[in-house]
Amino acid sequence: MFDPQPWAAAPFHFWSVVFFVLGSMVGSLLNVCIHRMPRDESIVSPGSHCPHCGYAIPWFLNIPLLTWLYLRGKCANCAAPISFRYFLVELLTGVTFLGAWLAHGAQSPLLALAYCLVLSGFLAATFIDFEHFIIPDQITLGGIAVGFVCSAIVPALHADLFTGAVPSAALALRRSFLGILVGGGLIYLILRIGKILFGRQRFALEPNTKVVFTETALHLPGQEIAYGDVFYRKSDAIAFEAKSIELTDRCYTHVDVRLTPSHLWVGDDKFNPEEIPRMDAVTDQIVLPREAMGLGDVKFMAAIGAFLGWQAVIFSLMLSAMIGAFAGLLLVALRKQAWSSRLPYGPYIALAATLWIFAGHPIVHWWFNVLNPWLARQLQGLLGFAV
Q1: From the CA atom positions of the chain, what is the Rg in Å?
Q2: Looking at CB atoms within 10 Å, which of 44, 70, 143, 279 has the fewest?
Q3: Is residue 144 situated within a structural domain?
Q4: Are residues 185 and 312 in the same domain?
């Protein structure tokens, strides 16, 4: 596996087919991870089964891509619909594996395999984050550990940004460790600064506006905000000064109100929010918590640093911010998302890091050598000293 000669014995595009087929098979496993990891279920047992009727899927009905097409997206036993996501994940994984081989296989088959491993994590994280707004620790913390080990096995993951020189295993480990520190530390610092500067969103309301708190959402005039869109952590709180407030069995006037996921304070009185089905308040303004990114994104970026180095972290951070901003504005313009709605950030990080894998070095070379060659020379000197 580590010797390139056996790989060269077969035609290059024989391996192209192998990588696509391998990718679609891995995509089938990723579908299991995407469905089970957020639910804290084992990805090993039980075996593949229909989530509707529990039918154990035999091997001949578990062939990637072909089975979904053959069954027309339905369970063979109960005919319940099987989400198109299953086919899409298998196809995308096959295509990304093929892309990794075409882009890097000639340089190093082992490097192509390492990138396939990284891209698999990106796909799983993307689909989980889109659906559940989390990135499981199995992907992030596991990715940090696996990325560090892979850096010793495949030092080409940390090839010199300007010369392309492959470092020694020891130097690759140093660059991986630096990537972990920058990926985790820098993003955590941004998260904390963002929380201090932008962690609250103040809504100025018309005088004597009535707001209603139900079991699932906050209702403002012309707008409904689900609690899941504002409560990202236990310490997050909705706060306001109520001119009057009505609970099921009591009323208050001119009192401070603070609502967290686990507690409700009305003045000095403390309640369990689950025991308050409805609360009507009159106020002039209300403050909601706001979060730019979560700790899952911090760990995810650290994993990217472990595999790809600190330069990839900076590249992914800058590009993902632009992609996320564009996507958010587009969704708002299409009326698919409200300004206050929560957006998953992990998929944009994954997309930016994927671009780094396939085109990051040419983009950086173009940026420095075409737009700012002087800065390129200074950075080369700095990098040569630093790493």
Answers
A1: 25
A2: 44
A3: no
A4: yes
